[in-house]
Amino acid sequence: MPQTTAPTPTATSTAETPTPVGGAAPVGTRHHDIDTDVEELATAAAAATTEQAAELRERMVLAALPLADAIALRYAGRGIETDDLLQVARTALVKAVHRYRPGTGPGFAAYAAPTISGEVKRWFRDHGWSVRPPRRIQELRAALVTEEERLRHHLARDPHDTEIAAVLTVSTADVAEARSCSAGYHATSLDAPTPAGTPLADHLLTTDCTTTTYDLHDALRQAITHLTDRERLVLRLRFVDELTQTQIGDHIGVSQMQVSRILRTTLTRLRTHLQDTDTTPHTHTPAA
C-alpha cells in the first residue's frame, strides 16, 4: 500500500470534538468550512503556476484531512489496523484533491466522500479476510446483517433463516453460508488453548466415526430423560422453536432472568452427563 501520509491538519480545519487515539483527526467534521477552504484554494490553484498549484493542493489536503479521517474511523474495530484505514483514506483524499474542479457540483466534501469511502471498502474487501470468501457471499453477508437487524426490530424477536431468505430472495443454505463466512475475518491458531486447557487442534482433528456420533446422540437422549418437564420444554422452545428468553418467560409464566437461569443450569447438567459417559470423540494421530 502507499507509504505516504498527509501532514497533520491545521487548527482552522479541525472540528471542535476531541481527537481520537492513533493521531486521527476528529470524527466530527464541519463540511461547510471544508468546502469553503478547499473551494478557495482550488480556485487559486487553477490559475497558479505548476509550483504554486502543488503547494495549494497540499493545503487543500490539510484542510480536508478531518473528512478523510472521519470516514476511516467509521470502519475501525473491524479487523483492520486503524493506521492502515487512515492511510488508505488519506491516499484517496489526495487523489480526490487532484481530480477536483472548483465551481462544479455541491462542494468538495460531497465529491470526495464517496471516493474515500469506496477506497476504504475496497481495502476491506481485498485485505480484510484471513480466508477470503467469494464476492457474492461477501455482498450477501452485508445485506444479511442489515436485514436481520431490521427484521429483529419489526418482529420483536430473532428472525428465522427462512424469513431472512425470503426477504433477500435467496435460499436458506445461502443465508447459512453468508453467516458462517464472518469467521473468515480472523484466523484462530490450532495451538490456542481451550477452556479445558487442551489445544484447539485436539478437538478439531477427529476421526469421522459413525459409531462415536451415534453414541454421543444416544448419551444426549439419555441425559435429556433426566431433565424435568419444564427443563425439556424450555430447551425445545429455545433451540427448536427458536423463541427468545423473554418469549419463553411469557409462555411458561416466569421472568426472562429465570429462563436464563433454567437454561444455564440445564445445559450444565447435560454437559456434565455427557462428560461422565466419556463419549468425546478421540483425536486422530497422523501416521509417522
In short:
The protein has helices spanning 31-46, 50-73, 82-99, 108-127, 135-155, 161-168, 172-180, 201-204, 210-225, 229-239, 245-252, 256-277. It is an all-alpha fold and 288 residues long.
Question: Keywords, please?
Answer:
288 residues, mainly alpha, Rna Polymerase Sigma Factor, Chain: A, Arc Repressor Mutant, subunit A, 3 domains, 12 helices, 0% strand, disordered C terminus
List the helices and strands and how they pair.
Blueprint: H1 31-46, H2 50-73, H3 82-99, H4 108-127, H5 135-155, H6 161-168, H7 172-180, H8 201-204, H9 210-225, H10 229-239, H11 245-252, H12 256-277
Helix pairs in contact: 1-2, 2-3, 2-4, 3-4, 5-7, 6-7, 9-12, 11-12
Q: How would you sum up this structure, described in words?
A:
This protein has helices at about 30-45, 50-75, 80-100, 110-125, 135-155, 160-170, 170-180, 200-205, 210-225, 230-240, 245-250, 255-275. The protein has about 290 residues and is mainly alpha-helical. The protein has three domains: about 10-125, RNA polymerase sigma factor, region 2, helix turn helix motif (Rna Polymerase Sigma Factor, Chain: A, Orthogonal Bundle); about 135-185, Arc Repressor Mutant, subunit A, CATH 1.10.10; about 200-275, Winged helix-like DNA-binding domain superfamily/Winged helix DNA-binding domain (Arc Repressor Mutant, subunit A, Orthogonal Bundle), CATH 1.10.10.10. Mean pLDDT is about 75; it is low at about 1-30 and about 280-288.
